[in-house]
Amino acid sequence: MATEAPPMQATPQQVEQMRLAMAAEAKKRGMTFEQFQAQQKAAIEKEAEAAGLTPQEFVAQLRARAFADMQRKQQAAQQQQDGQTQPNSPTSPQASQQQQQQQRIPVNTSGTPDPKALALAQWLRGQELKTRTCILGGQRKDMFRVKRALRAINSPAYEKASSKANTDLPKLTPEFPAEEILKLLPLSLLALRVSQVDPDAPKSKKRVKGQWTVRVEQQQEISPDLHYVFLYEAPNWKTKFYAAGAVILVFAVILFPLWPLKLRIGVWYLSMGMLGLIGLFFAMALFRLLLFVGTVFTVPPGLWLYPNLFEDVGFFDSFRPAWGWHETTEDKKRARKAKRAAREAKAKAKAAKNATQAQATVQHDHSHDGHDHDHAGHTHAVAQDEYEIESNEESEEEEEVPTNITVADASGASVNIATGIKRRDLRPTVDDADDDDFVE
After folding, report:
1. Where is this region: Disordered (predicted)?
2. CATH number of 108-201+208-234: 1.10.10, 1.10.287, 1.10.3470, 3.40.470?
């Protein structure tokens, strides 16, 4: 007689959710958790007795029904989603497997941040994650890749920090891996997954090169190639210092009538000097405009005094160069293209030169000293000769690699020629291999 398979057991997360739901229901009814649990147990025993079953059999039957209903709902939702996205094409096994492997994180916006998540955010803020500045909601935020955060959590430094007695950092265990630890950040809204907004859209003229404009994704997933943005700002002593200084400055200005006479006279002269500098700045701006208007007709395209004065550059760069001809956007694009073409041509010439030198060193004369070749009899008397190929390029890291060249003689035997060839170490380091983290 075939026995019925037991229903799927609930996961620890589902058990915790049911316990929280029961606690909330008990609180709503004005009862304690134990009283509500006893009431539910009595009701189940009563219903099981009416159905002619034991309480355990009745609970197993309820679980089987709930599991079947959940499966039917999931299948209906999946069929509806497939009908909306791809009505005529079946889902590929690879896509379904990838969908099952995705880790979806439900973001909880209620309550204060978890102390473990707060400690994790503080610790990650002090690590070298190669963060990149991005624009989120008009504000600058630090963006990082998930793989670097996972690498930091799996490092010995995290193990040492989490093993301290007075820390809230969650410990890394097989049951609680790095992916589960990193989920604490979006759950407490300390870091969220983002993506670039329309990467193929035309860039704004005021856009800073290298900065993405990002948006928060609805599905907070954990994958090594995804990007996250820190919403947590660590308390900075500089901010507190500046705030205290601002309060002291405001208080000092309020007490200006009580200042000594000499100090008040000095402040008056200082303010007049600042006003004079501001006036000179406006006069210079007016003069450079008149100079440009006067030269745009006489010596086009026009001459600017301090052409970078109002550009988005540093203070000292605003006054460099002292003068320059007017350049349109097309002129700047052409100049950038010319520089790029010059760099590419230089790189191609250097590569061709390296290839020519390598080919010249590899080729050798058949009448070399110490080598006698008898092509008619197919005999080769090869004398052992040491040589090395020295690179004439720029000084780079080199290593001497022993190389054996095998030459077959007429009898079929092979002769090894030991050489010492110096070559560059072209193997990329770990840092070099990870430089392409942020590719626009």
Report:
1. 70-114, 330-440
2. 1.10.10
